[in-house]
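Cross-check.
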Amino acid sequence: MQSHKIKKELADQLIAGGLNPLDVSEVVLRALHEDCDDNGDVTSIATIPNNQVSTLDLVAREAGTVAGIPVAAAVFAILGGASVQIQTPASDGDTVLAGDVLISITGPTRVLLQGERPALNLLSHLSAIATATKTWALALGDSHTKVRDTRKTTPGLRTLDKYAVRCGGGLNHRMNLSDAALIKDNHVVAAGGVAQAYELIKKRFPDLPVEVEVDSLDQLEEVLEVGADLVLLDNFSIDELNEAVEVNAGRAKLEASGGFTIGQASEIATTGVDYVAVGAITHSAPILDIGADLRMELS
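Predicted model, tokenized:
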């Protein structure tokens, strides 16, 4: 590897997307180390001259929403340093079609083939999340309701997973357990009640946003009375969501949660809830099929 640093132009793209270039570098280095130990890519070393140069195109094999272009580019930038030139015909958040070239990298063939799989793994994974999120965003249409993610992300990749959600037109929930408080059923049991848990948090962390999970309209009334700003409606039916919006009467933001499917999106949108939390967009999105095609450079 030539350098652990990412060139300024690439770093600026990451920063513009709300990503820390150092964090991305760490993810890329882990991915590269998974694929190659100190012995390197033995197949490429044995079969490809060290001075051979070619171009690798990362190409969409199916339509979708792309995310992770600068992350995948960082794989080759870190692996090849100044020996590679990178072009990005596509940008994160773009809707792409089968056959569209997303990234083209020119450089030593050994470098390109060593970086191919880590780059594809990251790009196809993040594009899967962006595509799933975009599907929900489109299904909700121009309604008031927006799709949000959860903490059901790939361990070690939460920042990137949530970035991909934004690329797909979704909103992020809290990044970690200190960003905001979320009172769930187990907290209620431990504290002795919904209202008690809410009051304890506001006493300890008065300026922290607090979301309260409820599983009944009675609990909703209770937390609205103590002043909750955001309420998670857990496993409410569509009819119950409609009732909850009426009971709420604009007092708090409402978030629907509970294993909803994309087929229910339009019904959820008509209820008037502010958000729908969908864990599946990060934990169950099938990868976007992206391939790598090598082109030999003419000497």
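The CA atoms of residues 224 and 251 lie 7 Å apart. The longest strand covers residues 53-60. Passed to J.P. for a second look.
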